[in-house]
Amino acid sequence: MLRGAEGPASHARLSQTGGGVSPEVRPGNEAQDPFFFDPPADTPQLRPPDDAKFALDVLVEMMAEAGLDAEVLYAVKRTGGLFPTAASVLAAEEQREWDAAVHEYRVRLLRARKQ
């Protein structure tokens, strides 16, 4: 699941420790990693929590390049980053949200085909 680790506490924790990120994206490699680090900042720093939409857009773009189905891409964006996998089962409420997003995509697709 992509969603859930965002927010000020997670941002502060990563800023202080560099924990949870691979060596390629730890401080010192900021210039090569605009996904995690804010390129316009005067000093290297993690992107602010408000940049979550940017991160989600980048992830969805990468998922598209990897060949994931359009309905999956739509649902990931629509749900703000949910992505169920065999290793990451969604909670019941999250699963309903995911299912609703997939259904919404399919309804929109059917409507578009009828036009």
What would your notes on this structure say?
By secondary structure, the chain is mainly alpha-helical. The chain has one domain. It is built from four helices and no strands. The longest helix has 23 residues. It starts with 7 loop residues before the first helix and ends with a helix.
Task: Write the SSE topology.
Elements: H1 8-17, H2 52-65, H3 70-78, H4 92-114
Helix pairs in contact: 2-3, 3-4
Low-confidence stretches: 4-25
List the quaternary state of the chains: single chain
User: How much strand content do the residues show?
Assistant: under 5%
Structural class: mainly alpha
Mean pLDDT: 77
Specify the number of helices: 4
The ordered string of helix (H) and strand (E) elements is HHHH
Secondary structure: helix percent = 40-55%
| Largest sheet, strands/sense/barrel | none
Taken from the alpha-carbon principal axes, the silhouette is: globular
Total individual domains: 1
What gyration radius follows from the Cα positions, in whole Å? 17 Å
Q: What is the end-to-end distance? A: 35 Å
* Number of DSSP-assigned strands: 0
